[in-house]
Design goal:
- The chain is α/β, with parallel strands linked by helices.
- It has two domains: 185 residues, YjeF N-terminal domain (Rossmann fold), CATH 3.40.50; 264 residues, 3-Layer(aba) Sandwich (UDP-N-acetylmuramoyl-L-alanine:D-glutamate ligase).
- 35% of the residues lie in helices and 15% in strands.
- The chain has an eleven-stranded mixed β-sheet. A seven-stranded parallel β-sheet has the order 1-8-7-6-5-3-4, covered by helices on one side.
- Helix 6 packs parallel to helix 14.
- The longest helix has 20 residues.
- The protein is elongated and about 75 Å long.
Length: 466
């Protein structure tokens, strides 16, 4: 993702993401005439086209132009390219031939963010495609593709990112996205894409006088014979700066496989919440639920613990299932929920729909908690409506146990004093970056946990946050 514009949003400085309806309001409020904005957009597209072409002499470009502003942007770019000596053919998006004229580049300016319907243009073959604002046929809100859109190598989008560039089919069809400032003021926005710079700026400082109990985490999870998940969560805590980890498996023990530095404390299956509450004050956060099981006794203890404890908590895995029928968290309870799509459905009572941002927001409001909805693009929402989008991960994270590692990482950040919302998106971003450093095939959750310290050292080295 390249940000030609350095414009940031009010959400911790992250890059703003604007829905199609919000973008229409921004366009309508612009002080300059539409014609001026079109010329600026056309100039940006022409510059990118020349970069992709490697020059203008002898180059041939096909512009697919619709009848709205997106098409006008493409025609403006065509005029500029012609003035630079490029041979340009402008085709009407509603009357495309079965085969394009010979070209070195296709500019997709057929339909923009307001398009509804299906787009099935001829294939561009091996000719690279430059999309204007978003690949035509991709829903700018959900990222879902209709028809067979052209797969762009680069997309030039204006003023701010659109959700469809980051969700569902969007990333695969829009290629490298360049955000260009054409003079539109998107103002303060509640949805943003987080970057490495945001993580560095927000990461909690560790003072020289730090000691282990200032960042202590208690991981409660697993069940007899099923201890892998809480062990992975423990590794996540350690990898992300937790100074002390207590690991408890209700009714069992993880001592034979747990990290050497973890402290094992046994808990009973029944009423373990009472024992936890006796000594929980020394801990900065709890991580509850990975591999916990779904017995009635365990679920009852977990629910009582969540109702009683007032410190920061991360609830993951079976902990989410146990809370599915519980009332929303009371005011003052600090909770991060980390569902994947199946867990979301159990908690929310409905499946995740096409608009993942709206669904994460809805659950955050309903449960009065920060919600981290896992996916190729992770959506983090808080009850106030703020949303952070995390795109650092890839398919290497699609392996058992990586979510447990993430839960531990968030718990470690909470114990170090990070705010709930910040801890969730920072943990997800660092988790994704760590996954990208692992091997392309055969990556395990342990590999991801082991990669986290090096990734953080690279980002934080030389920073005041280190």
């Amino acid at each position: 993702m390249d940000q030609t514009s350095q414009r940031r949003c009010g959400l911790g400085g992250v890059i703003p993401v604007v829905t199609p309806s919000e973008m229409a309001e921004v366009d309508a409020a612009a002080p300059e005439p539409t014609e001026v904005l079109i010329e600026r957009a056309g100039a940006a597209v022409a510059r990118e086209a020349l970069r992709m072409l490697g020059g203008s002499y002898g180059r041939r470009v096909v512009v697919i132009a619709g009848r709205g502003n997106n098409g006008a942007d493409g025609r403006s770019a065509a005029r500029r390219l012609i003035r630079r000596g490029v041979s340009v053919s402008v085709l009407d998006a509603t009357e495309l031939p079965p085969v394009y004229p010979p070209a070195d580049l296709v500019i997709d300016a057929a339909y923009g963010t307001g398009f509804r319907g299906s787009f099935e243009p001829p294939s561009s073959g091996r000719v690279p495609v430059l999309a204007v604002d978003i690949a035509s046929g991709v829903d700018a809100l959900t990222g879902l593709a209709a028809g067979v859109p052209l797969r762009a190598e680069v997309t030039v989008t204006f003023a701010a990112l659109k959700p469809g560039l980051l969700l569902a089919d969007g990333p695969g069809l829009c290629g490298e996205v360049r955000v260009v400032d054409i003079g539109l003021d998107v103002g303060q926005r509640d949805v943003g894409l987080v970057t490495d710079d945001d993580l560095v700026a927000t990461w909690p400082c560790r003072p020289r006088t730090a000691h282990k109990w200032q960042s202590a985490v208690w991981v409660i999870g697993g069940s007899p014979g099923m201890t892998g998940a809480p062990i992975l969560a423990t590794r996540g805590v350690q990898a992300c700066g937790g100074g002390y980890v207590r690991l408890s498996v209700p009714g069992g023990s993880a001592a034979s496989h747990a990290p050497t530095e973890a402290v094992m404390v046994e808990l009973p299956v029944t009423r373990f919440d009472e024992i936890v509450m006796e000594s929980v004050d020394r801990f900065g956060s709890l991580v509850i639920g990975p591999g916990l099981g779904r017995s009635a006794e365990v679920s009852e203890s977990l629910c009582r613990l969540v109702r009683s404890y007032r410190g920061p908590m991360v609830i993951d895995g079976d902990g989410l299932a146990a809370l599915a029928d519980e009332e929303p968290f009371s005011a003052g309870t600090d909770v991060v929920l980390t569902p994947h799509d199946g867990e979301y459905e159990r908690i929310a009572g409905r499946p995740v729909g096409d608009d993942r941002i709206a669904d994460a927001r809805r659950l955050a409001v309903q449960r009065r908690a920060v919600v981290l909805l896992k996916g190729p693009t992770t959506v983090v929402a808080n009850p106030g409506g703020e949303v952070a989008l995390v795109t650092s991960g890839d398919q290497r994270l699609a392996t058992a146990g990586t979510g447990d590692v993430l839960a531990g990482m968030i718990g470690a950040l909470l114990a170090q004093g990070a705010e709930l919302f910040d801890a969730a998106w920072m943990g997800a971003h660092a988790h994704g970056l760590a996954g990208r450093t692992c091997r392309a095939v055969g990556t395990t959750a342990t590999d991801v946990a082991d990669a986290v310290p090096a990734v953080l050292a690279r980002l934080l080295h030389g920073s005041s946050r280190s």
